[in-house]
Amino acid sequence: MTNGWLAAGGALSAAAAIAHLAVIVGGPRWYDVFGAGPRMVRLAEQGSPTATWITLGIASVLAVWAAWAFSGAGLIPRLPWLKLGLAAISAIYLLRAVGYIPAMFVAGAPVGTFAWVSSAIVLLYAVVHVIGTLQLWRS
User: Fold this and answer.
1) What is the distance between the alpha carbons of residues 121 and 118, in angstroms, rounded to a whole number?
2) Is residue 69 within 8 Å of residue 7, measured between CB atoms?
3) CB of 111 closer than 8 Å to CB of 104
4) Are 101 and 116 in contact (CB under 8 A)?
């Protein structure tokens, strides 16, 4: 039986990975629009490979997370440490959702619309992953 929550979680993580790849293609303006921060925008404007490598790294992690969720959903073969991996992914999404804005306050950084919107989106990712992981854990 397919775990719909984890299938949705995999789709969300895959979409986020694709969005990160699109930012690389879109260039400095896209880094700015998607909230990458002034340092990353500057790196992209300068043509530095650092911005690309960091963004590729994030996209790669998100793609691996998508695969883990798809595995938990029963859509691809079972990956090693499936339940533990999904629990860790859920925890990371949850920590990002609820910890980003407080971390910005502590750092003295301005908390703008991007911080609130991205935290709400990642909270959705976290909830979907937590529910799917709990269902998998109980099965």
Assistant:
1) 5
2) yes
3) yes
4) yes
For the segment 7-20, the average pLDDT, to the nearest whole number, is 98
* Residue 30: pLDDT over 90: yes
All residues at 6 or more sequence positions from 79 whose CB lies less than 8 Å from its CB, including other chains: 67, 68, 71, 85
Whether pTM exceeds 0.85: yes
Structure tokens at 33: 């629009």
- How far is 89 from 125, CA to CA, in rounded Å? 10
List, for residues 83-117, the tens digit of each pLDDT value. Answer: 999 999 999 999 999 999 999 999 998 888 888 99
Rounded alpha-carbon distances, angstroms, from residue 59 to 13, 23, 68: 9, 10, 14
Using DSSP's 3-state secondary structure scheme, residue 42 falls into: helix
- C-alpha 128/C-alpha 100 separation (Å) is 19
The token pair at 121 is: 């989106």
Label each residue of 50-108 as H, E or C: HHHHHHHHHHHHHHHHHHHHHHHHCCCCCCCCHHHHHHHHHHHHHHHHHHHHHHHHHHC
